[in-house]
Design a protein that fits this description.
- The protein has five helices and no strands.
- Helix 3 packs antiparallel against helix 4.
- The protein is mostly helical.
- The chain has a domain of about 60 residues.
Length: about 120
């Protein structure tokens, strides 16, 4: 049980730290947020818990393919905000379009016989 508490606290602390840094320096916060911290932590937890290299390899491959459509979010959100849409609407539009991009990527991968 204590192991799961440590995992949650460590992960939460990283997210809070990025949020706090952003109030002082957006560039540093963006750099920290751009590091695939969630992916790295998930890979570390899987290795510590199971030591399953095949699962880590498969996860890494899946992350690679699904990072590509996630980039739509970071293009659409600032565009919507610059167009004067409210934050909430901009966030929903960016999330919706990103979900569509995920669906398109999964369909495309299936067409090429790539299984995640």
């Amino acid at each position: 049980m204590i192991y799961y508490v440590i995992k949650v606290l460590l992960t939460a602390c990283i997210i809070v730290a990025i949020s706090e840094v952003s109030s002082r320096n957006n560039t540093v916060a963006a750099l920290l947020a751009s590091i695939p911290m969630v992916s790295v932590l998930a890979i570390i937890w899987i290795y510590i818990e199971r030591g399953d290299i095949a699962q880590i390899s498969a996860l890494s491959t899946g992350i690679f393919w699904l990072v590509l459509p996630s980039l739509a979010f970071f293009i659409v959100l600032p565009l919507c905000l610059k167009q004067g849409l409210s934050f909430t609407v901009s966030l929903l539009v960016a999330m919706g379009l990103t979900a569509l991009c995920y669906g398109a990527m999964l369909w495309l991968l299936k067409q090429f016989g790539i299984q995640l």
